[in-house]
Amino acid sequence: MAPGNRRGGKHAVKDKDLTHTKYDDYNREQLAAAVKEAGCYVKDEKKSTMARRLADRDQNSRLEERRAKQEQKDREKKTEQEIKEVAKAKESRRRAREQRNEDRYERRELGEDVSSDSEHTEDLDERGRYDAHKLTVTGGEVLSDDTWEDTCSEISVRSRNPPIAPSCRLRLYEWAYPFAPSPKMPANFCSELFPAPLTYVPLRLTAMFTGEKVTLPGLRYPAGVDPDFVPILDPLVRTAARHGHTTGLLAHATIERASTWATRTIVHGWNGRIYLSLPPRNPKGSQLDEIYHKLNTERLMLLQPTPGATDAKKDRNARFEQRSAGKRRAITEVYDASQWQPLALAFMPAQLDWEPDIKDTYLQNAEFTTDNLFYVRFPGCDLPHYCFWTRQGEWVDPTTPDPSWTPELGECRDSVEKVSLPRGSLKVRNLTAPAVQSSLTESDPAAVLVSIERALILEGLAAVLAECRVAAIASGKGDMWSVLTAQLPMLYPSSTMPHAPPMEPSQGVCVAEKITALLCDQDVLPLTGQESWTRMDDDYWEVITDRNTDELGSPSLQRPPHHHPTLLTETRDEDVPQALYRRDSNDATPILSPYPKH
After folding, report:
1. What is the number of structural domains in the chain?
2. Is 298 inside any structural domain?
3. In 3D, which of 359, 301, 298 has the Cα closest to residue 329?
4. pTM for the whole thing?
């Protein structure tokens, strides 16, 4: 390396290497530091090369900065132009609407019959309403002050929400109008106002007349079951319900009159909707902007694949389930935080006669009123799961059994079994459980089986399922647990588990053996609802054929000591003795396939 000039000078740069920038005055150490800072350092590079690279880099940076500023300016100009065009189009529609209203008024003054629901008018009015401000993500919308004034006229605009088709799902709607729904049937169904559909959420609501608090069905469904799920009924079960007989899946259900519900809240007898109101807003809750920010953040995160996920399909399905749960949670949180609330929410049960290929069932009957509308409600639920209308010539009061109706033997083979004991017979717990203490984590299947049998006798089926579910998930057997309990939503739609094994159990593996097989890594069979609970049910439950008050109140009829509110928790009435009743054959639910997707 050449020594520095002793007189304090510097080496001259050749004319061909000049960059005409500040880098022409840098020495080698300064140039090396600059290229290192710029991230483009190359070892043993000439001074002229380093100076040229730095000069080119600065020039490119300036060009990129000018380009970005120009693009930003173009975007702002385009946005401003679009806003002006939207405002201009809105003003044009408003003026055209005013002109049409004036023309109609003049023509009416001249005695002409002027129609106010032409296709052209509806189209323009719909465009004006489309510009209205969306208030929430729940599907309802309100109009801003200026838009409301523009659209208010003598013209009645038909609702944009579509008519409601039959379904076998629980449904929820928002009444997003500035007036309460009318319980009277509209004279002209063409002008009927339809509520806006919502994602079904088991909300806690209140009756509009009595103010009583009710909870929508589906709150206690196990993980993996949609809250709007309703099982499709067998044709014989549907026919029996129309005659006042509850069998099969409806064995413990109650048939109620819609007229009774109409005294508690608003009921639309022509479509089965029950209108309820939201509870008062929580003033100490979260702010609406905070909720939207959190929901948008979660939504954006779930749109991207999970880092480190090996199974893309499984990850996509999991993220889809999380997004669906987020939508349901958003409705609850937004309603709780929003200062604006709709006047009513409409709950609509599933149609009793629904089948996969059915179309417009309600059109098959000419009469749809509150008087011939009935609801089917499961025990432990505040609101019904099914609704149906009685037809002409049928049993007029399904709340009481039709004594003349009996199912034919061939049709009821799979749904209604022959009763070997009186309907009043029951089985109560006989405290002769084996005095064996064991744990669900034992490796010996025999010890685990005895432990589960003892728990079924002392605690009941709901408590055992809750405890075993925790043990199965903790040991990584969640998929096997899903196989075991796949049919429970079909067997017990209200999430209320039986208090005792069936009166006439099916032959085969008992409940305790099926749970033991799962915990001990053996082949798992799904629960069917008709198997015995233990290997010797008759030794632990005795039959009482004569039901009377003294006997039911005896100390031997002890209630289970534990109450588990987790998985499919059983609900008990305070005025009913809590014995472990042995179910009648007619009360037993049929063996069904896994619940269908409909």
Report:
1. 4
2. no
3. 298
4. 0.53
